[in-house]
Specification:
Layout lengths: L10 H26 L27 H13 L6 E9 L17 H11 L3 E2 L6 H11 L30 E24 L7 E21 L5 E24 L2 E12 L2 H21 L19 E2 L2 E2 L12 H4 L11 H9 L2
Parallel strand pairs: 1-2, 1-3
Antiparallel strand pairs: 3-4, 4-5, 5-6, 7-8
Helix pairs in contact: 2-5, 3-5
């Protein structure tokens, strides 16, 4: 058995061990990576399975619950929503990514507004993308389209008839734009470095930064028949970002050690745009419903049972199945998820 004196490793021998172990470690890492990705497709026909199995969840803002509550208020008091269409809500900031990859802000603000109106129980009519309806109207006008089962190209069938007034008109339409994107409204930070004057001792650094930016929106609700502007709202929302990091550095027996860890995050800009839109839609719909204010949401639960509106949007039931399929079930992250829904898992097991 070796004595403690003979077990001491010299700096030269430590450096030699480091030089021999580092390539071995790199080789081991490469072999581990090759086990995850193979140049030969497996029995399932793929080279690798994608990572990540997070379930699909709702995407609410702090105003989504209030929109749903407003829909409940309208249902309870038998208030009918006017027919509302959504037009262009464009990005007017002109801000683009420095690498030329596109705009910094979402180009789907109109779609966010449609979802917000659906959450509030608004009676929506489509005007944003009517390409399919216009094409089918053209086919129907030429007697080329049928609503029945096709009996073949040589067998005539009833064609779809065009009826005057079959498309309901809108009472109001919503338009506007994202008008502001201001970077670095305010920022603050602190950094500190410390260490010994001796060469072989550790030195450390720590730092933290906080940044604030904002997005702004201008929307207007227009009477379709008279083009009179019935409502105008301008809102902005501030967005915060932070970054924190610490690091250690040292020379030890001829080797350099540099260890650093950090954490940072940016509040989602696009979710900020959604929040501004939902707040604007909430105020407009509260005006149309005649809701006095947030106090209408103080009651507990839905007095009318299963909802068709929720934080995921709204729908028109095709069948009388609201006890099993409603807005609340749509918000369940385990719903229809084979990995997380017990019912779906049971059905999946029954197939084998």
């Amino acid at each position: 058995m070796e004595s403690p004196e003979t077990m001491v490793v010299s700096p030269f021998k430590m450096s030699l061990l480091a030089r021999t172990k580092i390539p071995a470690a790199i080789t081991a890492c490469a072999m581990a990576l090759s086990a995850c990705v193979s140049p030969v497709a497996g029995p399932s026909g793929v080279y690798a399975h994608p990572m990540g199995d997070a379930p699909v969840t709702a995407n609410p803002t702090p105003y989504s619950a209030a929109l749903v509550c407003l829909a409940d208020y309208a249902r309870e008091h038998h208030l009918n929503s006017p027919r509302i269409a959504v037009g262009r809500i464009s990005d007017y900031t002109g801000k683009e990514e420095a690498d030329g990859s596109g705009r910094k802000l979402t180009q789907g603000a109109s779609l966010m507004a449609i979802s917000a109106l659906a959450k509030s129980g608004a009676n929506l009519v489509e005007r944003y993308d009517t390409s399919v309806s216009e094409l089918e109207l053209k086919y129907a006008n030429n007697k080329l389209i049928s609503d029945g089962t096709s009996k073949g190209p040589e067998t005539p069938s009833d064609y779809r008839r065009i009826v005057a007034g079959q498309v309901p008109g809108s009472d109001f339409y919503l338009v506007g734009g994202i008008t502001e994107l201001n970077f670095n409204i305010r920022s603050t930070g602190a950094n500190a470095d410390a260490g010994s004057s001796a060469v072989n001792n550790w030195a450390g650094t720590a730092g933290a930064q906080v940044y604030v930016m904002n997005v702004g929106l201008d929307l207007r609700l227009v009477d379709t028949r008279t083009l009179q502007v019935a409502d105008v709202i301008s809102y902005q929302k501030q967005i915060i970002a932070r970054q924190v990091g610490v690091g250690l550095f040292s020379f030890f027996h001829g080797n350099v050690y540099n260890i650093s860890v950090g954490e940072g995050g940016l509040e989602p800009m696009q979710l900020g745009v959604r929040a501004v839109i939902e707040r604007a839609v909430l105020e407009m719909m509260a005006n149309l419903y005649g809701a006095p204010g947030p106090e209408v949401c103080l009651q507990d639960g839905d007095p009318l049972g299963g909802r068709t509106t929720g934080v995921t949007g709204g729908f028109t039931p095709a069948y009388n199945n609201l006890d099993k399929n409603n807005a609340q079930t749509r918000e369940d992250p385990a719903r229809w998820n084979v990995a997380g829904d017990p019912d779906a898992t049971a059905v999946e097991r029954s197939r084998y």
